[in-house]
Structures are given as C-alpha cells and as structure tokens.
UniProtKB/TrEMBL annotation:
InterPro entries recorded: HIT-like, HIT-like_sf
A GO term, aspect molecular function: catalytic activity
A Pfam family of this chain: HIT
Residue intervals of the HIT domain: 65-134
Disordered: annotated span: 1-27
Name of protein: Histidine triad (HIT) protein
C-alpha cells in the first residue's frame, strides 16, 4: 500500500502513434501530461527524453530550450519523486552541456521560475556577451522575435542533431 504523497514506480512510458512536425507519421510517442497553453504557444517540440519533453523557445534572439517533465501536477521540483528529481537535473545538465558545445555560448543559464506558467519546466538558455539581454536575465528583456519558418526548421534540426548525441539518464525500470 502506498502512503499519501508517494508515487507508483515508473514502468516505462505509455506510447501512442501520432505524427509531429518533422517526425515520421506513426512513430510511437510517449503520452505527455497536458502542456500548458503558454508553453505550447511559445515553444516547439524537439524530442522526448526519458522524463522530459524537450522544447525550443520560439525566440530568434536566443537559443533557448525548455524541459517539461512528464508528471501531472508538478509545479516545483520537490513535487517530483526523488528518482525523478535526480533525472530532471541530469537531463537539464545534459541539455545545458550539449547546448554549450553546439553554440559555443559564453554562458549557459539554467532556471526555474514558474511565476507565469506554473507547470514545472526548466529553461536552458545559451548566452553571449553580445545578446540583447547580456549580462541580465533573458526573462522580460524586450519583446520575443519569432523565428521565421525556415529559421525555425533549421534551429529545430540543429537542436535535434546535438541532442541526439547527448548522453542522458535512463529511467529506472
């Protein structure tokens, strides 16, 4: 019997057959918890990792990833089971290292805010000394500049390529 607040052990991702832009139709995909409307509107799916959906923020000014754990009701990292907390940080650090290597950024910012979007998500942002927000935070710095369709396709392909080479944790069975 599980106590209040405990979670059932992870038994692997549920899958469904669905297509996403840039993905072959019928590819098995994990069923994600519903994505916050603002995250869905401001970002694009890149890849599903063991715990998180990795997304690309639609802002040409920054190469910016967002990791969204596939756990219903998670608002804060401590809402996750201890095993999921460890995997969240491992995935965030793997994304940060891959983003830094791919972009040669001066600095990688990793942050959790949640003041506007309460669904737990981790920002991983490549920073350069010449970016419009440097050295301050990217949040609230000017107006996002949407990627044009060709630039979006290129950036998604680039993110998928460098993340595919990334070593990331496996979910416990």
């Amino acid at each position: 019997m599980m106590s209040a607040g405990s979670r059932a052990p992870y038994k692997g991702p549920a899958v469904r057959r669905q297509s996403r832009p840039g993905v072959s139709p019928g590819r098995p995909l994990r069923i994600m918890v519903p994505l916050d409307d603002r995250l869905a509107a401001d970002s694009h799916w890149v890849v599903d990792w063991p715990l998180c959906q990795v997304r690309l923020m639609d802002d040409a000014r920054f190469f910016w990833l967002v990791l969204v754990p596939d756990r219903a009701g998670a608002v804060e990292p401590f809402d996750l089971a201890p095993e999921d907390q460890a995997i969240l940080w491992q995935e965030a650090l793997a994304a940060a290292a891959a983003l830094k290597a791919a972009t040669r950024a001066a600095k990688i910012n990793v942050g959790l805010l949640g003041n506007i979007v309460s669904q737990l998500h981790v920002h991983v942002v490549a920073r350069r000394g010449e970016d419009v927000a440097w050295p301050g935070p990217v949040w609230g710095a000017g107006v996002p500049e949407r990627l044009d369709p060709a630039a979006l396709r290129r950036r998604l392909a680039e993110a998928r390529a460098f993340l595919a080479l990334t070593s990331r944790p496996e979910m416990p069975r």
